[in-house]
Design brief:
Blueprint (H helix, E strand, L loop, with lengths): L3 H8 L9 H8 L4 H42 L4 H16 L3 E8 L4 E8 L4 H4 L2 E3 L3 H9 L3 E3 L12 H10 L3 E9 L2 E10 L7 H26 L7 H30 L4 H12 L2 E6 L4 E5 L7 H10 L3 E3 L2 E8 L2 E9 L6 H41 L5 H10 L8 E7 L4 H14 L3 E5 L2 E7 L3 H16 L4 E5 L8 H17 L6 E3 L5 H6 L5 H19 L3 H10 L4 H8 L3 H15 L6 H16 L6
Helix pairs in contact: 2-3, 3-4, 3-8, 4-8, 9-10, 9-12, 10-12, 12-14, 18-22, 19-20, 20-21
Length: 621
């Protein structure tokens, strides 16, 4: 028998009744029972294929409808519009008489009717269902779908007068309800219902579940948009907002990539700051935890202290006018502050760039601090060895110093700084400072010791006292000695520097810095070796040199002048010259060593220097 006719029927999508025609024609033509049986088998197979194709076509239509639904929902931003669209599409997809939605109310512990489509009963449209009551209340409580072909007589559900009354007034018989989930949480129930008995197929339950899944996401998105008061008026406005946000996201991603690349390549806080201003414009300053400037791009005259305090208290961006201040922190610890003076308006999305920059800077500052602490320990160990005299192998010591960027063959001064602050903070400052100066440092309780390149201990002591004092917010007293004879002279230099610091404190000069030379004749008492020649040279050098060049007697005149109690007449008498000549000589001395040379404190040092000069045989008794 020819069974190809069934393929032709399938090909032209003929109705099911047409598949009986070939059998009827064969029977009319007197076909044998075997041929008729063969045709019957071919017909049955063809109808199965036709049913399978029909199911697949229907599934394709359903999937297409779901995609269209998702697209429609994505274009809606108003919550009421979203809910109405969901219920209307549910009714269309399942061919139901009525579709409706209930939303859970956590504050009252029930679920209430929110939107209906096709409903005519006011009582039905205002129903509230206790959790566990009725078909909808059971779905809302258990999170499982339920269906009933005849709800009012279905004993699986706990019936209440209000629910049954609303269902009766609406005339509903068959009801299908599926949960709308957000994660593990059920936020409501989506229903399809008919005014006649209806058994819902598994495919229809699955279809409504898929729509409910889309609905839950759409509802949550719409609710979030309402909570943040973001409304889109028209489709063109929505498209523009999406474009702007996309640009901001892409800009933030580019900024993040650039900052990450900088960190990988060893960039610092200054480089990250440059990336921010390159993308957002304006000018930016980065402050450390104490308010000192770590980096600056553009000109930022001053940052509002109140705004810094508010940003650090809130732990997030604080704004005032065109200024944005973001704290740089690691956990509860504040490492610094980032402040941007914007060149124009900055979108909220662009502020994420600032927050990412603050996070990257926090990582850099933590890394820098850890590296400084490690390097500080290494530098401290080397300085401890120098001071303690552990120099069994000078070549090895030089190698250790070179690895730290320190040249022990150059001139160095040693500074001892006394402070009343925290040891950890003082040690961190000393380590950072000495590393920047290519020197060494070590810290003890209440004291830091620094070995710094240079040959001017007085200047080094004053600088350390000022800068460490500013870092700690406390007075720091620093004594210095040098140049130091390395490696063997470090211990002697430390003792002298400590004596200088002690002398400053004894003299009431807390917060100052000085060396033995700077302390004048006091330095002779505390200095290592008591170099009287250097003291005389510092005090009288220009006058002595003038006498040697010109053959004058200014030094002798000064000695006699002090010896006569400052009497011009007696000085002139001793020198056998006129008083006007004495006056001229004294004026010359003032021009050589300063007009204040007769001030009490200087006069005391000058007289001591003259006495030492005489003891050395350079002046007549």
């Amino acid at each position: 028998m020819n069974t190809r006719i069934f393929f032709e029927l399938l090909a032209r999508e003929a109705p099911a009744v047409d598949f009986e025609t070939p059998i009827a024609e064969a029977r009319a033509a007197g076909a044998s029972p075997a041929d008729l049986a063969e045709l019957e088998q071919a017909k049955t197979a063809a109808l199965r294929v036709r049913a399978l194709l029909a199911r697949r076509a229907r599934r394709e239509v359903e999937l297409s409808a779901l995609f269209e639904t998702a697209s429609d929902l994505a274009g809606l931003r108003d919550l009421d519009a979203v809910l109405n669209a969901i219920v209307r599409r549910a009714r269309q997809l399942l061919g139901a008489d009525v579709a409706y939605m209930t939303l859970n109310d956590p504050s009252r512990g029930d679920t209430y009717m929110r939107v209906t489509d096709g409903s005519i009963s006011r009582a039905f449209q205002t129903l509230r269902l206790p959790l566990g009551s009725g078909l909808g209340g059971l779905v809302a409580q258990t999170g499982a779908p339920y269906a009933s072909s005849g709800y009012l007589t279905d004993e699986r559900f706990r019936h209440t007068g209000s629910i049954d009354g609303g269902v009766t007034e609406e005339g509903l018989v068959g009801i299908l309800g599926v949960p709308m989930r957000l994660g593990e949480r059920v936020i409501g129930v989506l229903f399809a219902a008919d005014r006649a008995e209806r058994s819902y197929a598994q495919e229809e339950v699955a279809l409504l579940c898929s729509l409910a899944a889309h609905a839950a996401v759409a509802i949550d998105n719409a609710r979030l948009l309402q909570e943040t008061r973001v409304t889109l008026e028209e489709l063109s406005a929505a498209s523009e907002a999406a474009r702007v946000r996309g640009d901001a996201v892409e800009r933030a991603a580019r900024a993040h990539d650039r900052m990450t690349d900088l960190v990988v390549r060893g960039g610092g806080v200054e480089d990250v700051a440059s990336v921010v201003t390159d993308i957002l414009g304006g000018s930016l300053v980065v402050l450390d935890a104490d308010g000192r400037r770590l980096a600056e791009v553009g000109r930022v005259d001053r940052v509002d202290e109140d705004l810094i305090t508010r940003a650090r208290t809130l732990g997030r961006t604080a704004r005032r006018g065109d200024l944005r201040v973001i704290p740089i922190g690691a956990g509860a610890e504040v490492l610094g502050t980032l402040a941007l003076h914007a060149a124009g308006d900055i979108a909220d999305a662009d502020e994420r760039i600032l927050e990412r920059a603050a996070l990257v800077m926090a990582l850099l500052l933590l890394f820098r601090r850890n590296m400084t602490e490690v390097e500080g320990r290494v530098r401290g160990e080397l300085l401890d060895d120098l001071v303690a005299g552990h120099v069994s192998d000078p070549d090895a010591l030089d190698a250790r110093a070179r690895r730290l960027g320190v040249d022990l063959g150059a001139d160095h001064v040693l500074v001892v700084a006394r402070h009343g602050g925290r040891r950890e903070r003082a040690a961190f400052w000393a380590s950072s400072f000495s590393a920047a100066e290519h020197g060494l440092s070590t810290a003890y309780s209440g004291e830091v010791v620094l070995l710094l390149p240079g040959h001017r201990p007085e200047e080094a002591a004053a600088r350390v006292a000022k800068e460490l004092g500013a870092a700690l917010g406390l007075p720091v007293t620093a004594g210095a000695a040098g140049p130091v004879d390395l490696p063997g002279g470090a211990d002697a230099a430390r003792r002298e520097a400590r004596r200088c610091a002690d002398a400053l404190l004894a003299l009431g000069r807390e917060g100052d810095g000085a060396s033995a030379d700077g302390l004048g004749f006091v330095g002779l008492l505390i200095g290592e070796g008591g170099d009287t020649g250097a003291f005389v040279e510092r005090t009288l050098g220009p006058v002595i040199a003038y006498d040697e060049r010109r053959g004058t007697a200014l030094t002798l005149t000064m000695a006699i002048y002090f010896g006569t109690g400052g009497s011009l007449a007696r000085t002139a008498e001793r020198l056998h010259i006129h008083t006007n000549t004495v006056t001229q000589r004294l004026e010359r001395i003032g021009r050589l060593i300063g007009a204040d040379w007769q001030r009490a404190d200087r006069a005391l040092q000058i007289q001591l220097a003259l006495h030492l000069h005489r003891l050395r045989g350079s002046l007549p008794p």
